[in-house]
């Protein structure tokens, strides 16, 4: 006997496009998908939920966020729109270092309480897995606090959390003009200790003229490989640094941003199976004009994922549905590609493709149910949330989760 049967639903399995299965049902046993098929063939279960004609998709996956941080940068946003230059803002102590100062100053409790409301916005839209990066501590204790907070979010809220160590995000002021020394600290102190503490699922870096060089990035990747940890990379966001090919050489899970990636980078990603994580929120917020080469990625067969990149400086976005709409409107992804980008391909960007991202027997029973007429509605509407119900590992919940938990 199955534990749960959700009947009277249309399924988007996300196998081969939407993988539509109309007038279907899906059964769960021990938190995993035990059966799915035509409604007429469904066997009785301990508990049955009438889906009332809703669409049921895999739970959405936000595979690139900096959602744990303290403070925000709305004052900079406002100052810039009132005519302040980047130099004015930097002189006034703004930019990424203002988030680093705020995050270092916040205790663990404050970090949790500031971050949870942002995560709840994602959960209300059917998100069941979120990736959370460190990178605003840039020192052992504060990076530890960020990753421990990410793990706590996974423990106190109904969401699976994948953690990523992003120590090589920016050069902290205490290492000014000593970037090699900082990379030493990242590779020989921070990463090994945080990995030993069980806080690191993957390792990321920011390879860019304003951040770290390809050679420094490779040192981080080598340190990750020595610990058996997978890598991903903020690559080719503002300029071509050869980062996509570099992360592909390390069989990386993903190369993220990619507005300036070359064909050589795309070919290397295709050969390695590295996912392209596209982040339309940052492109929009920075008013960038060079779109990622979607047509070339598509024709090379590189899987494309979509994420919020939720962060206070360049993408204060907590709606994955809006990110899907932006990817379609700004970059001409199809609605099916956008939904695949938040399910099957996002799972692969986290190395979790064997467990989540599609509706298949044996996979974790993470679902979202939607009051929509067809799957394209998810990428079509802006600021509209049709999520009716969410299922985390076989446990149904309302989209809106209360905090603190009762
Ligand atoms: Zn990012």
Could you please describe the fold and organization of this structure?
With about 400 residues, this protein is an alpha/beta fold. It is about 35% helix and about 25% strand. It contains 15 helices and 15 strands. The protein has helices spanning about 75-80, 85-90, 95-105, 110-125, 140-155, 180-195, 215-225, 245-250, 265-270, 280-285, 295-300, 320-330, 335-340, 345-350, 375-380, and strands at about 1-10, 20-30, 30-40, 45-60, 60, 125-135, 160-170, 200-205, 230-235, 255, 275-280, 305, 365-370, 385-390, 395. The strands form 2 sheets. Strands 5-6-7-8-9-10-11-12 form an 8-stranded parallel β-sheet. The protein has a 7-stranded mixed β-sheet with strand order 3-2-1-4-13-14-15, with no helix packed on it. It is globular. About 55% of the residues are buried. The mean pLDDT is about 95. Zinc ion (ZN) binds near residues 64, 66, 234 and 309.
* Average of per-residue pLDDT values: 96
CA-based gyration radius: 21 Å
Distance between the termini: 31 Å
- Major pleated sheet: 8 strands, parallel
In order across it, which strands form the biggest sheet? 5-6-7-8-9-10-11-12
What fraction of residues sit in β-strands? 15-25%
H-E order: EEEEEHHHHEHEHEHEHEHEHHEHHHEHEE
The stretches of 5 or more residues where confidence is low (pLDDT under 50) are: none
SS element count, helices: 15
How many β-strand stretches? 15
Helix content: 25-40%
CA-based shape: globular
